[in-house]
Amino acid sequence: MQFGDQRKVAIVGAGAVGACSAYVMMISGLVSELVLVDINRDRAEGEAMDLAHSASFIKPIKIYVGEYEDCRDADIIVYSAGLSQKPGETRLDLVSSNLGILKKVLPKIIDRDQNSILLMVTNPVDILTFAAIKLMELSPERVIGSGTVLDSSRFRYLISEHCKVEARNIHAYVIGEHGDTEVPVWSLANIAGFSVEDFCCRCGYPSMDIELITSKVRRAAYEVIARKGATFYAVGLAIRRICQSILRDENTILTVSGLLEGQYGIKDVCLSLPSIVNRSGRARVLDLPIAKNEEEALRHSAEIIKSIQQQVDLSPLGPGESYSRTMPKNIDFPQVPGFH
Fold first, then answer.
1. Exposed/middle/buried for 121, CB within 10 Å: 0-12, 13-18, 19+?
2. What is the pLDDT of residues 91-125, one digit of tens each?
3. pTM confidence score
4. Mean of the per-residue pLDDT values for the chain?
5. In a domain? residue 62
6. What's phi and psi for 65, nearest 5 deg?
7. Is 171 a catalytic residue?
8. What is the pLDDT averaged over residues 310-336?
9. What is the CATH classification number for the domain harbouring 285?
10. 315 in any annotated domain
11. Which sign, positive or negative, has the C-alpha torsion 219, 222, 226, 229?
12. Which listed residue (162, 171, 178, 300) is catalytic?
């Protein structure tokens, strides 16, 4: 499959996140073909019709409802199917239900010989990204989780509000799990080459409350969900940004989730680290010179995810096999700060 003027993106799951992602992809002008696939075909068809009716306001694009097989020739498959996080739930609470759905859907949309890049969005995104690689024996660089791309944007937004600097001028990353154990990297956060603390000092601003900002970053989704029931605008734009880097071969550095293979001594788990994203997918993972306490927090994040992975069946799918394995009804979730 060659990228060119004809660019096709398939979105599996036409709920709030999938529909919002379709909308921002449509108005971006990045793609020439956009297909929506959902078990609720009427919902997907309604979304596709609503989007297609804007044809006279945007660049030419083919938008339609499709079947699973329509994903096979897509440049990017955005997987947003499954249950969404409800008030009071953590992302990890969704493991059993959404992994069960993934096992049924994944063999219908992709196989190991396919050139499509799979962008996992459904939570818990790190575990489902790992599951997609293992279940279908897919090439790790071609399976990307949306990871902490949005969390990093939230981090930059909060710094920008305090320092009165436009968020795009702030370099700051959130790494690790997309969830309660994620790690804002304060040691490398900078504005125009100045550390955040140094910038505040030079400009006469009070020092930032690191614990408060870290808590706000980790709790951001919970706060939104408690008020409006779901998050979808910002994550839709995060998905568009990842797709843009892939389709335009931009070599953008984004904190996408993917398989770690020894970084910081961590293996066999998908977590977010700053990575070069281009036409080949997650082309290179960057080992940042982070502070010792941040590295320890990252390893703790990996341990939490691994402890969940060990309780579910992620054995590869054999040729012609369909998934019917029983998911565990009760998963033992480790207790971590803020976990409830």
1. buried
2. 667 888 899 999 999 999 998 888 999 999 999 99
3. 0.90
4. 90
5. yes
6. -90, 140
7. no
8. 56
9. 3.90.110.10
10. no
11. positive
12. 178
Q: In this structure, what are the phi and psi dihedrals at residue 11, rounded to the nearest 5 degrees?
A: -115, 115
Query: What is the domain-level CATH number for residue 15?
Result: 3.40.50.720
316 occurs within a structural domain? no
Alpha-carbon distance of 122 to 147, in angstroms, equals: 10
CA neighbor of 239 nearest in space, from 156, 142, 120? 120
User: Of 8-17, 85-94, 320-329, where does the model show the most confidence?
Assistant: 8-17
Spatial distance between the Cα atoms of 123 and 150, rounded to a whole number of angstroms: 13
Do 128 and 222 belong to one domain?
A: no
Q: Which residue has the tokens 């196989």?
A: 111
Judgement on whether residues 130 and 252 belong to the same structural domain of the protein: no
**227 lies in a domain?**
yes
212, two tokens: 């408060």
Q: Which residue has the tokens 């603390």?
A: 197
Give yes or no: residues 136 and 156 share one domain: no
**Average pLDDT of the segment spanning 52-63:** 96
Residues 325 and 103 sit within 8 Å (Cβ to Cβ): yes
Statement to judge: residues 116 and 159 lie in one domain? no
Task: Report the b/e string of 243-257 with b at 16+ CB within 10 A.
Answer: bbbbbeeeebebbbb
